[in-house]
Amino acid sequence: MTTAISPTTLALEESPQDQTPLPSWNEGATKQSILNFVRGVTTPGDARLVKPEERIAVFDNDGTLWSEQPMAFQFAFGVDRLKAMAPQHPEWKDQQPYAAVLQGDMKTFAAGGMRAIIELVMTTHAGMTTDEFSSIVHDWLTSARHPRFDRPYTEVIFQPMLEVLAYLRANGFKTFIVSGGGVEFMRVWMEKVYGIPPEQVVGSSIVTKFEMVAGVPVLTRLPKVDFIDDHEGKPVGIDMHIGRRPIAAFGNSDGDLPMLQWAAIGPGSRFGLLVHHTDSVREYAYERSSLGSLDKALTEAEARGWTVVDMKQDWNRIYPFEGSK
Amino acid sequence: MTTAISPTTLALEESPQDQTPLPSWNEGATKQSILNFVRGVTTPGDARLVKPEERIAVFDNDGTLWSEQPMAFQFAFGVDRLKAMAPQHPEWKDQQPYAAVLQGDMKTFAAGGMRAIIELVMTTHAGMTTDEFSSIVHDWLTSARHPRFDRPYTEVIFQPMLEVLAYLRANGFKTFIVSGGGVEFMRVWMEKVYGIPPEQVVGSSIVTKFEMVAGVPVLTRLPKVDFIDDHEGKPVGIDMHIGRRPIAAFGNSDGDLPMLQWAAIGPGSRFGLLVHHTDSVREYAYERSSLGSLDKALTEAEARGWTVVDMKQDWNRIYPFEGSK
Fold this sequence. Notes:
The structure is a homodimer.
Chain A: H1 9-17, H2 29-42, E1 56-59, H3 73-85, H4 98-102, H5 106-111, H6 113-125, H7 130-143, H8 159-170, E2 174-182, H9 183-187, H10 190-194, E3 201-213, E4 216-227, H11 233-241, E5 248-251, H12 257-264, E6 271-276, E7 288-289, E8 292-293, H13 295-304, E9 307-310, H14 311-314
Parallel strand pairs in A: 1-2, 1-5, 2-3, 5-6, 6-9
Antiparallel strand pairs in A: 3-4, 7-8
């Protein structure tokens, strides 16, 4: 598969060489909390020193590393995919949740709840081989555009967080994604865009089946949920895939709270961070998105002393495609 | 947890510095097939060159990296654990499969089939936190001895395969375990013994549950099977955890065949290897163990040109604790 996903390698590679890390972060307590944590766990002789193999950091994706408005980007993929499949399915015109999606009637779709979502996901994400699915995702990423920014979705990512990923890795950390998103959807592009290889991406999954078909080994994606990597599923997913407790976690909603609890409450130096979407001009401002609210996580962050990013105040640049101030 | 697991780091570290790789392998076609494959995929300008990030190699464990006789070592752990728990369970004296195990009556136990095995596993592997389970495994590994060799089980490992692991890593490969064994059983010791970190261990699993207990985050192991990483489960586990198709696979039974098919049949340079247990004097000779037979895999290896190790002929040293010839 030829690859034309986004030129963000440049944005990623800017920071490690920089004399001052995290250039897109304004000076202040938020930026200092990251620098202090990393210096503590990496400075020989410091009581907070952590062995390199235990420097595990986990990142949520939607709303933490890329935007999630006006809808979760993987949901936009599902909608576009359904539209592409519709000509072969005339019956969808009178059948929910398909009719609602095809007419852009998101209220009716939302009324269908989790059942409608799962039906949309299964129809658009299952019934093909893993290789075929990767190609479909790749093709969508190279053609679809974010409605507001008119950019590929893989460019609607947070420059300050790319700098955190690079800064942690330059300090011996292994960075993992732990997201409610579909694991095979994310693996297609994350190595190129975030520098995170497929084996360090943890996500939700559907069941796959191995078969030899005419002498060719094939994995087929079945319309059955295997694992939901959200809320209490996140620490479970971390344990299943990483098998080691992270010492740093980055999220932006209540769905990330158990992951932050698992990583950031414990002996030794630990770090928790929440991205708070407070910038209605450059990005979006919200407390509650289609992907969940932030109430409980904000309350616990305050009680535990976790870092809360005020996007409007703390970031001098949101996206790689903006000039930095 | 203080660690006293096995001094095999030494054995692991011997090879990369060596002028001749794979010193415990006798000269011949078997050794040459490994050297040729690795040289091909790592030599710049060679048509077989594979990018470092795609150099993924997967290894079965039981019978491939350590012995599996007179019984699978994790099964020996289960038996010892049951004996340690028995004083608190007087009712087991009259209850199967417990009575059979406690009396060492493996015939009666075997008659119970998969159901008896699952009951033994759940009783001995579930009902505690993940941290507690790690401690139990660790304590067992530091005290239990292999009945024939009178060594810790973590020393009854194959020196030639340690050399392959080290040789592959020295050539830019990432090495993964893909085993039917319990993932949390294996992760306790594999980093120290094989140099494979927890996040590169794929195995069978039971369900875990996340909870905050009096402000402390805890993962509890429940008596419910989550995933069986054997036979057709192996390529599925590879896809779930690694998300990339390996280019080399090492196994020793029909349970490894789908993994070998997934890794070793495909475009580009690929490698499959089966360990055939042919040495009744230094190790064991068998075609069919409690963990399965080898018939289908041997037949397919011949048809596909995969490498078959004749342990007696090809290895001049089996275990790290033997002197090399």
